[in-house]
Write a structure and sequence with these properties.
Strand content of chain B: 15-25%
Low-confidence stretches of chain B: 1-22, 256-272
Oligomer: heterodimer
Radius of gyration of chain A: 21 Å
Order of helices and strands of chain B: HHEHEHEHHEHEEHH
Shape of chain B: globular
Number of helices of chain A: 9
Largest interface: A-B, 38 and 40 residues
Strand order of the largest sheet of chain B: 3-2-1-4-5-6
GO molecular function (chain A): ATP binding; protein serine/threonine kinase activity
Shape of chain A: elongated
Number of domains of chain A: 2
Distance between the termini of chain B: 43 Å
Order of helices and strands of chain A: EEEEHEEEHHEEEEHHHHHH
InterPro entries (chain A): Kinase-like_dom_sf (IPR011009), Prot_kinase_dom (IPR000719), Protein_kinase_ATP_BS (IPR017441)
Number of domains of chain B: 1
CATH topology of the largest domain in chain A: Transferase(Phosphotransferase), domain 1
Structural class of chain A: alpha+beta
Strand content of chain A: 15-25%
Pfam families (chain A): Pkinase
CATH superfamily of the largest domain in chain A: Transferase(Phosphotransferase) domain 1
Distance between the termini of chain A: 46 Å
Number of helices of chain B: 9
Radius of gyration of chain B: 19 Å
CATH architecture of chain B: 3-Layer(aba) Sandwich
Keywords (chain A): ATP-binding, Kinase, Membrane, Nucleotide-binding, Serine/threonine-protein kinase, Transferase, Transmembrane, Transmembrane helix
Protein name (chain A): Serine/threonine protein kinase
Helix content of chain A: 25-40%
CATH class of the largest domain in chain A: Mainly Alpha
Strand order of the largest sheet of chain A: 1-2-3-4-6-5
Chain lengths: ~300, ~270
Amino acid sequence: MSFKVATPDLPRQFHGKWNKNVYHVLRELGRGANGAVYLTTQGGVKRAVKVGFEGMDILMEVNVLKSLQQGRDSRVGPLLCDVDDLVLNGRPCTFYAMEYLDGDQLDDYIQKAGVEWVPVLIVQLLARLDILHKHGWTFGDLKPENVIVTRQDKQVSLIDFGGVTKLGNAVRQFTEEYDRAYWHAGDRRSEVSYDLFSTAVMMVRLVVDSQTWHMSLGEPRQTQILCDIIRKSDSLYPYRVPLIKAFHGKYATAHEMRAEMLAILRESTVAPASPAPTKQQGSGTGGKWISSLFVASMLLLAGTLYYAWFL
Amino acid sequence: MFSLLRVDTVAKTGRMGRLFVKEATLRQILVVTDGCSNSGMSPVAAAALAREQGITVNVIGVIDKSELGEKGETEIRDIAEAGGGLCDIVYPQQLAQTVQMLTRKAMTRTIHQVVNKELQEILGDSGIEELAPSKRVQVAGMVDELGEKSNLNVVMLVDTSGSMKPKISAVQQAIHDFSISLRSRSGQSRMAVCSFPGKHQHLDVRIPWTDKVEQAHQLTPDLAMSGITPTGPAIVEAITLFEHIKLPQALSERYRESNVEDGEGDLRDHVF
């Protein structure tokens, strides 16, 4: 639909102007706001190649991927393999090649594997976000389409870094459904809490069917609507406290939210028969857990009173 | 290109980044329409005129069930091309995010062009394309940062001819939403909202220059829905809203008056 921001079709084979790597194009994998991604082989290895006409946007993504690669901690997204130029229809284009991650889009995977995977994958996702945030970036355009679950080892990975924004700047790209400002819950400044808000909305989205979801997108767009969905859903209800805290920007780090989600997840998997999944106890992970939960619960007390209707 | 930076000295000291930020004000007109213009001068010529005066013109076509038609699409593309901006055709639901994205991409592009011009002076004819991608990554980071920090003035020019009626609520939402996006930037941002055709002129100023739009919902009641679409003349009048351009006598009186009026109105709002 968008022709000015449109991306070119690649020839079946091309090579980079600087590094001279030769790529054989197999098929298109998808399109983002900044360009199109193709599956290719280069020297017998599968690579995902992203091409766009607006070189600066592509290079910003490279910038992010590069900065993430400098740390040796666990992975956030695909590894960057090559950055180069090619000429398409007489115009110079910038492209980059990255490791090809074979897997399903997050929402497709949940469809196939079941909603019980939602909290597990969200906890994983929060770990990825935590690393990204520690590097000084927020993801920005967080949505199921930008998260994949690898086929082999069921690991969550972020893809499409076009929305990744330096902390403190204005979010570069967003999708209304997962956007904090759309829900009248804050502005569009790149903050840890912006990503956590999107994560919480995404968790709700992944659990409900698309009809319920689309009904909830009408006016007024307030997080109250999301709270109503959470209250009615057996899968979401146990996670209501972290979800609501995320809606209200109460977490300073993704790690904090992850810890609370994980505690609930453990509780529900350790004692699946328990009819009251609301109690929070550190299940044998030591005093640190319990004391942090105590602090958290003190904080929550005020919140709980505020959300008294919810209990 | 325009008063973005003191080109010569800056380029030679190789510190364009720092000075650039101080000087940069980006000016844009964003046209939101759903069809072809049918009155007055060519909107493509008007966009070219805007670009000559340092104003980028972006265009968003809003479609409903009905398509824009080839003629409408071509016009939108040509306006953006001549205005040095970008365009997109979207459904009303996508309007808000498209407004933000086009604005940002057009800013990046403008800054890129200016930076590229600087680089050409340093590197010779070819400019940035002759830099290896690994070097250009650093330039990209700088361009992005400049985009964030520079001042931005945007006039939203909303087509309120009859066929836009069902889409106006989405437009209002987008106006309010855009103000949130602008507020989230580090650089100073201002926006103004105009509708065309105006009651008496080609365009009515709905929201004068402001950095905060809370009153978008007030837009509805007096929106005049009319059959003619004078996109070209409206762009020409929108150009005059940017203060760096000297207004022709007739227009200057009109706009100065309305600006002062609304400025006071704004103040009153803040007092209460």
